[in-house]
Design goal:
This protein has a seven-stranded mixed sheet with strand order 3-2-1-4-5-7-6, with helices on both faces. It is built from five helices and seven strands. The chain has one domain: Vaccinia Virus protein VP39 (Rossmann fold, 3-Layer(aba) Sandwich), CATH 3.40.50.150. Strand 2, helix 3 and strand 3 form a beta-alpha-beta unit. With 178 residues, the protein is α/β, with parallel strands linked by helices.
Length: 178
């Protein structure tokens, strides 16, 4: 895993892969997504939420680009410990709030609005298709905010009322919602 832009550009991290329930976003698809976000987001002014955060890859990219308010959520203890350690190594502990929780419990309990929300759920998650509805039902996205969900071709959100567009990078698809 490497950070592709900002002040930490080029930094590499090797999460322990043994028994990890993660599927890190490929560099190819991540570069494509961040090329789009670079033209749509002022990273310095963004309150960001990373759901199913895994290795924390998305969080590091945002902080590397100047975002100072990132919330990471994952329920897997190994991932949470890795993100805490990586935050210490990078010296970004003040910029990231790390929450060990089931994402759906977090969504139901949080009372904060975010400018940018990213969800990278496990592709076989049986309730993956419900994630956009949960985000909007619990009013987590700030006015003018952007929600991006990573999924594979088995899922299609084009008929969702808040869907705006998608970008396809092979078997990785990013659906954009506003």
């Amino acid at each position: 895993m490497r950070i592709i832009g900002g002040k930490f550009k080029g930094r590499r991290f090797n999460p322990p892969a043994k028994n990890w329930p993660t599927r890190p976003t490929t560099d190819f698809s991540k570069e494509g997504l961040f090329n789009i976000l670079q033209n749509r987001i002022y990273f310095e002014d963004t309150k960001m939420l990373d759901l199913f955060g895994g290795t924390g890859n998305h969080c590091y990219e945002f902080i590397s680009r100047g975002c100072e308010d990132v919330t990471y959520v994952d329920k897997f203890g190994g991932c949470v410990a890795f993100v805490k350690k990586t935050a210490e190594v990078l010296g970004i502990e003040d910029n990231i709030t790390i929450v060990k929780s089931d994402v759906f419990k977090f969504i139901r309990g949080v009372r904060i609005k975010y400018d940018y929300i990213f969800a990278g759920p496990p592709y076989p998650l049986p309730i993956l298709d419900e994630i956009p509805d949960e985000i909007f039902k619990h009013d987590l996205l700030a006015e003018g905010g952007l929600f991006v969900m990573e999924h594979n071709p088995d899922h299609d959100f084009k008929n969702h009322p808040r869907y705006k567009e998608e970008r396809n990078y092979g078997t990785t698809i990013f659906s954009f919602f506003k």
